[in-house]
Amino acid sequence: MRCKKRHSVVSNILRPFFKCYFKHRYNLKIKTVSLLNEGCLILSNHLTPMDQFILGCAFNKHLYYMASIDLFQHRILGKLIEFLVEPIKKQKSKKNDIHCIRECLKVSRENGNICIFPEGNRTFSGELAYIDKSIVKLAKMIKKPIILFNIIGGYGTSPRWSNVVRKGKMDAYVKKVLTYDEYKDMDNDKLYDLIIDNLTINNFDDSIFFKGKKNAQYLERAIYVCPSCHSFSTLVSNKNEIKCQHCNLSVIYQNNLTLKANDEKFNFKHINEWYNFQTSYVKNYDFSKNEEVYKDDNVSIKIPRLYKSRLFVNKGTLLLNLNEIKIIGKKKATSFMLDDIEAMTVLGRNKLNFYVDGLTYQLKGNKRFNPIKYMHYYYIRKNKKEGIENEFMGL
How far apart (Å, rounded) are the C-alpha atoms in residues 164 and 45? Predict the structure, then answer.
């Protein structure tokens, strides 16, 4: 059997403890919803590192989460997680992961409850990240009721780029329920739009305050283009301020999540507007005039392994040019042609994973390291080379 009794026992034991934790830490009160015995597919937006536990508190039965295989690369913790709750492993390098689909179908046949964050990543901007249309095909294969779930206030409380949890307000609830009969004959595009509409929330309600003394700290992990001078990687944060070292633009990240700048030409009210400008700017930027696209010092590269410690490869200066990414260390250089890389993704707050010939390589820099710019360039180049108009840029 794929669904084991111990999974439900673990969930039932942990649920009341996590409810108390979320009430005091996140100012979140969760009302537990009773699920039917037939099983279901739960889809939710993704804001905080604790979202899977929030969903676990919101329902009275064990949920089988779809989780990145990267989660299991810790030698002891990976095996413990698999034994206690056995998530459905997903390889981020594979768009159509056959093993993952088979595991979903196994859980479904045993009337287990599947939980997926279809964005595949926590949002950096506060907006719903890209969702692949394959989620619709998977839902129709599973043939279970779809529960669309909303988490609100998580971006203000614990944004992905920050180390700090702010004092604010969160809410979590079921937005919509679709029975299989209601969607089985629905046009795929219509069902996809319905999912998007019901997972899209407003993370920037000016009337809600998230108090903190380091609201902007490490915002440069997400934002790397100055909107005033258009310089790359010149932004440095300190407590509630982020400042451009090239043109001295100063932006204060206020408690109601609005932005206040010392430049009248700065016209972004919220971070998502700045992030969207950044994405649009780099999409249209002519990188061909730069021999060196991006550079960061003191970056390590390792190979994560399932249930084993990571293998050290190199450490030194990370360089990205038009066609290659490499680490120049004291004794050697390690390089990869971008054409050989199958996919890139950001792991956690600011690690960069990429996949080559079945291996995962992980880049880790200092606390201010921005991996998004490397991933953006990779997907801009990849999409242009393949001649496709694709909004997907890794997130």
Answer: 21
d(CA 163, CA 201): 23
Edge-first strand order for the sheet with 324-329 is 333-337, 324-329, 308-321, 292-305, 359-364, 351-356, 343-347
Q: Which amino acid appears at position 255 of this protein?
A: N
Whether the CA torsion 287, 292, 297, 298 is positive or negative: it is positive
- Flag whether pLDDT at 270 surpasses 70: yes
| Residues 301 and 352 sit within 8 Å (Cβ to Cβ) | no
Pairing of strands 146-152, 171-178: antiparallel
Rounded Cα distance between 319 and 336, Å, is 11
The DSSP bridge partners found for residue 155 are none
- Rounded to a whole number of angstroms, the CA Rg of the chain reads 21
pLDDT tens digits, 115-125: 999 998 999 99
- Give the Cα separation of 382 and 375 in Å (integer): 10
Residue pair 39/13 in contact (Cβ under 8 Å)? The answer is: no
What global pTM score does this model have? 0.93
- Altogether, the residues listed in the chain come to a count of 395
33: which DSSP letter? B
Q: Dig out the tokens for 127 from the structure.
A: 């907006």
Angle between helices 5-25 and 51-58 (to 10 degrees): 110
Q: Give the DSSP H or E segment for 296.
A: strand 292-305
Cβ proximity of 59 and 12 under 8 Å = no
Q: Please state, in angstroms and rounded to a whole number, the distance separating the CA atoms of residues 369 and 73.
A: 22
How far, in Å, are 125, 256, 322 from residue 168 at the CA level? Answer: 18, 10, 43
Instruction: Place 395 in a pLDDT band, splitting at 50, 70 and 90.
Output: confident
Cα separation, 144 vs 148, whole angstroms: 13
